[in-house]
What does this fold into?
Amino acid sequence: MYVTIVHVQVKPEHIDKFIEATRLNYEASIKEKGNRRFDILQDIDDPGKFILYEAYTTQEDAKAHKDTLHYLMWRERVPMMMAKQREGVPYNCLFPQD
It folds into this structure.
Protein backbone atom coordinates (compact mmCIF):
# COMPACT_ATOMS: atom_id res chain seq x y z
CA MET A 1 0.00 0.00 0.00
CA TYR A 2 1.22 3.49 -0.88
CA VAL A 3 0.42 6.32 1.55
CA THR A 4 0.81 10.08 1.32
CA ILE A 5 0.44 12.26 4.39
CA VAL A 6 -0.28 15.86 3.44
CA HIS A 7 0.28 18.59 6.04
CA VAL A 8 -1.79 21.75 5.54
CA GLN A 9 -1.90 24.98 7.55
CA VAL A 10 -5.00 27.03 6.73
CA LYS A 11 -5.54 30.71 7.46
CA PRO A 12 -8.12 31.11 10.26
CA GLU A 13 -10.56 33.04 8.10
CA HIS A 14 -10.63 30.24 5.49
CA ILE A 15 -11.06 27.15 7.68
CA ASP A 16 -14.73 26.57 6.83
CA LYS A 17 -14.16 27.08 3.10
CA PHE A 18 -11.16 24.74 3.20
CA ILE A 19 -13.18 22.05 4.96
CA GLU A 20 -15.94 22.29 2.36
CA ALA A 21 -13.52 22.16 -0.60
CA THR A 22 -11.70 19.23 0.99
CA ARG A 23 -14.97 17.40 1.71
CA LEU A 24 -15.85 17.53 -1.99
CA ASN A 25 -12.41 16.16 -2.90
CA TYR A 26 -12.76 13.46 -0.23
CA GLU A 27 -16.20 12.31 -1.41
CA ALA A 28 -14.92 11.71 -4.94
CA SER A 29 -11.52 10.36 -3.91
CA ILE A 30 -12.92 7.50 -1.84
CA LYS A 31 -14.61 6.22 -5.02
CA GLU A 32 -11.36 6.04 -7.01
CA LYS A 33 -9.82 2.79 -8.19
CA GLY A 34 -7.23 1.66 -5.68
CA ASN A 35 -8.28 4.02 -2.89
CA ARG A 36 -7.95 2.30 0.48
CA ARG A 37 -8.35 5.29 2.84
CA PHE A 38 -8.73 9.01 2.52
CA ASP A 39 -8.88 10.56 5.98
CA ILE A 40 -9.13 14.27 6.71
CA LEU A 41 -7.86 15.19 10.18
CA GLN A 42 -8.12 18.54 11.97
CA ASP A 43 -5.87 19.39 14.91
CA ILE A 44 -7.84 19.82 18.15
CA ASP A 45 -5.57 22.56 19.51
CA ASP A 46 -4.95 24.36 16.21
CA PRO A 47 -8.11 24.23 14.03
CA GLY A 48 -6.18 25.58 11.03
CA LYS A 49 -3.86 22.58 11.00
CA PHE A 50 -4.94 19.61 8.89
CA ILE A 51 -3.56 16.26 7.83
CA LEU A 52 -4.83 14.44 4.77
CA TYR A 53 -4.04 10.72 4.99
CA GLU A 54 -4.28 9.19 1.52
CA ALA A 55 -3.78 5.45 1.05
CA TYR A 56 -3.85 3.73 -2.32
CA THR A 57 -3.20 0.15 -3.36
CA THR A 58 -0.29 1.18 -5.60
CA GLN A 59 1.84 4.20 -6.33
CA GLU A 60 0.24 4.30 -9.80
CA ASP A 61 -3.22 4.59 -8.21
CA ALA A 62 -1.97 7.49 -6.08
CA LYS A 63 -0.53 9.19 -9.15
CA ALA A 64 -3.82 8.70 -11.02
CA HIS A 65 -5.58 10.56 -8.19
CA LYS A 66 -3.63 13.69 -9.13
CA ASP A 67 -5.13 13.58 -12.63
CA THR A 68 -8.76 13.49 -11.49
CA LEU A 69 -11.05 16.45 -12.01
CA HIS A 70 -11.99 16.66 -8.32
CA TYR A 71 -8.33 16.79 -7.24
CA LEU A 72 -7.45 19.38 -9.88
CA MET A 73 -10.40 21.52 -8.76
CA TRP A 74 -9.32 21.19 -5.11
CA ARG A 75 -5.70 22.03 -5.96
CA GLU A 76 -6.81 25.15 -7.82
CA ARG A 77 -9.23 26.31 -5.13
CA VAL A 78 -7.31 25.93 -1.85
CA PRO A 79 -3.84 27.53 -2.18
CA MET A 80 -5.11 31.00 -1.32
CA MET A 81 -6.63 29.54 1.86
CA MET A 82 -3.30 28.19 3.10
CA ALA A 83 -0.94 30.00 5.44
CA LYS A 84 1.95 28.16 3.77
CA GLN A 85 2.40 25.67 0.96
CA ARG A 86 1.11 22.19 1.74
CA GLU A 87 3.64 19.41 2.23
CA GLY A 88 2.97 15.86 1.01
CA VAL A 89 5.20 13.11 2.33
CA PRO A 90 5.00 9.68 0.63
CA TYR A 91 5.31 6.41 2.57
CA ASN A 92 5.27 2.71 1.87
CA CYS A 93 2.88 1.04 4.30
CA LEU A 94 4.50 -1.94 6.04
CA PHE A 95 1.51 -2.97 8.16
CA PRO A 96 -1.20 -3.85 7.56
CA GLN A 97 0.05 -5.84 4.62
CA ASP A 98 -2.17 -6.29 1.61
About this structure: The first strand starts at residue 2 and ends at 9. The chain has one domain: 2-92.
